[in-house]
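Regression test attached.
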Amino acid sequence: MTGVIDPQSGTNFVRLFERIADRFQSGRLTLRGIDRDEEAWIVFKSGMVEDARCGPATGEEAVRAMKRSGRWTYEFLEAGETPGAAGAVPVAAKLGGLSLKAVRVKSAEPVSTPVSVPVAAPAAAAKPAGFSREEVAGWLSGVGAGREGVMRLAKVGTEWLGGEVTEAEAAYYAGDSAWLLYQAGQIGAALRYGAPRLAAAVEPDRASGYLRDGAGGLALQVAGEGAQIDKVINFSPLTQ
Amino acid sequence: MNEDLQPFLELPGVRGACLHRGAQVAVAMFPEAEGVAGAQALAGAITETFTAYCQIGRPVTQGFFAFPENSVLTVTALPKSAPLGGAENPRPLSEAFLTFLLENREAVPGLISPARAYLTRLARADAELWLRFREDLLRIIGRVLNRAQCHNVMAKILMQEQVPAGGGVGPDRFIQVGRAMIREIPNQAKHEALFSELDAAVARLTGA
């Protein structure tokens, strides 16, 4: 995947990170400055930033430095992919880009009868260190699950539990959670804290909370307009 | 100001509290481990996050982030429409934020309402102070400009500085806005005297 990051045209790191999290999860993003001799890179793993460099800066500081710089061309190589002969695309390349508003949560409806969660899991469904189906079943039917206007979903391995999830919705949740948890990482770094597992935000039309399990699993809950943050941060027993 | 935050610290599970206007810390009562430097870095990171969301048309009013050590809760009062100028005219948020360090998420439900009420009171006080500042400013630049010129300059600078109608900026930005208006006065020989008068007026209003 190649393109141009141009803040003036509205193409920024937020959208690029979403696209990477949506489509690839892991790989290396190489950036080359437009009209300047500057190069930078970011390594993604499981949709999260694992390492980065921009000039002398590394890690979170490097990502901040990239955001402050001007326009970049970029090339993203998925893990295992080899670089294209052409490298990063020229400035005039036509850009795509997933709009955050392109896929919206239709309506935050409660999952009243939580799920037909198959407890007997296929052996390959859940990865080690990930959510177990039993834990997910407990969370989906646990305290707060029946509260009005709260939707709960969880991804175990490659399977979604808790309700029907279309491909577009799955891509949206992956992108949105990756971005919010990336921002949470920046906030934690300010306090020298460890990596975040849970992040939640309230917007005018909804509140959303995301929990990652470190093995590609994701639990999420979304509440409708007017919801406060406390409605979407209870992931117990997944957080224990 | 410290007294304002003290009631929050008395709530169970609350380890620290910080009032900041954008990345600028107004007052922080953090435990020693995080300290003042931690509060300043945290205010910067929170502002960057909330600004990034605003710039893509998603104003976030509350955020919760759980870490192995503690959790962070932030409450602010952004309008429903994104207040920023978008990619063409970006600026970091300078609104008031209340950010808390929490032992766990159980502290959150008891904090949301008091935090929102505090921010509402603060916004009301800011708006009243803004009106008084606006009168002072018109009086100061009115020494050199006529009434119509004063209002033209004010309209131009408020738009340029992205000051919402009715104020909505804290006193920390009064000097910046006032100086920008004074710089619009063609007679530069008057600037220094008017800057001094502005500083005195702001000091009077804010008690600084």
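Expected vs. actual: identical. The radius of gyration of chain A is 19 Å.
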